[in-house]
Amino acid sequence: MKVQCTYCALSLALASTVESFTTILAPFGTRHRSAFARSSTAIDATAVFFGTSTGNTEEVADLMVAKLNELGHEAPEPICVDGVVGDLKTEFSKYEALIVGTPTWNTGADTERSGTAWDEVYYGELGDLDLSGKNVAVFGLGDQISYGENYADATGELHDVFSKLGCKIFGATEIDDSYEHEASKAIKDGKFCGLLCDQVNQDDLSEDRVDKWVKQLVSEGFMSGGGAAAAPAASAPEPAEAIEAPPASKPAVEVIHSRDGWVGHDNGESTLWVNSENRRESYLTKN
Q1: Tens of pLDDT along 4-55?
Q2: Coil vs helix vs strand at 3
Q3: Which CA distances in Å does 280 have to 86, 122, 277, 284?
Q4: Among residues 23, 182, 240, 272, which is most buried (max CB within 10 A)?
Q5: Where do the H-state alpha helices sit in the chain?
Q6: Of 86, 90, 113, nearest to 102 (Cα)?
Q7: How far apart are CA 102 and CA 227, in angstroms?
Q8: Whether the Cβ atoms of residue 100 and residue 229 lie closer than 8 Å to each other
Q9: 100 touches 171 (CB < 8 A)
C-alpha cells in the first residue's frame, strides 16, 4: 500500500484549496495564481525531482533550485515524485536536464532502498522510458553516523537506474575529508556518483555543498545539452582564383622595304621576309 509523503500530500492539498479560490474569483478579474502552481517551463530548463519521507531531501532540493535561479538557470519549484507517478514520461519530457534526489531508508535491501515513490517506479514505469541523451545528475541523503556502512546507498541505485535508460550522467564528486561514512553503494569508480548530503549530522555543510555542486554542473555543461557549444568549424578558405598572367606584349613591328620583291617585318629580334610573288616566307636573323 502506497503512503504518500506528508510534505507532498500537504502541498497538493494546499494547492487544490488555493486553486479553488482562484476559480471562484476568476469572474471578478483577479489575476492571483496559486503559489504552489508550477509555472510552464521551457524545454531547455532544468527541473529537480525528489522523493522524501521526512522533508530533508526536499530541503536540499530547495537549496538547489535557489542556486540554479541565482546563477540564471530557470528552474521550477522542486517536484515531489509522489505527485507525478503514472505521468513520468510527460513530466520528464518537459525538461532538457533532470536533477533527481532520494533519501535512503531500506538500508538492508538490495534494491528499492529509498522508502519513497522512486521504489515503485524504478523497475516499472521508469524502467520503460527511453531517456537517451537526457542530461541527469543525482543527489542523495543519508545518516553517516547511524548508518555509516550504508551511507546514502539509495543514491547509487538512483544513479544506476537512470544510467541504464541511456541518460548522460553528470556531477560525480570527490570524497573529501568532511565525510565520516564507512561505506556507500553511491561510490562509483572512486567517487560519489553525485552530491551526497547529511541533514542529520552535517546540515550546516549542505548549503556550501550544494553551491559547489551546482556550479560544477554548470562548468560541465549540464544545462547546455552536455557541454559547451562547440564553436562552428572555420570554413576552409576558398582557393584563390587563378590569375592569368597578362599576355606578353608583342614588340612593335617595323615594316621594311629594303629588298626587291620582299616585304620585311622587323620586330626588333628577327625579320620576317615575305615574297610577294610566291608568298614564300623566311626568317632572317637581324645582323
Answers
A1: 455 555 444 444 443 443 333 333 333 232 233 344 444 558 999 999 999 9
A2: coil
A3: 105, 104, 8, 13
A4: 272
A5: 6-25, 56-70, 88-92, 118-121, 153-163, 203-219
A6: 113
A7: 26
A8: no
A9: no
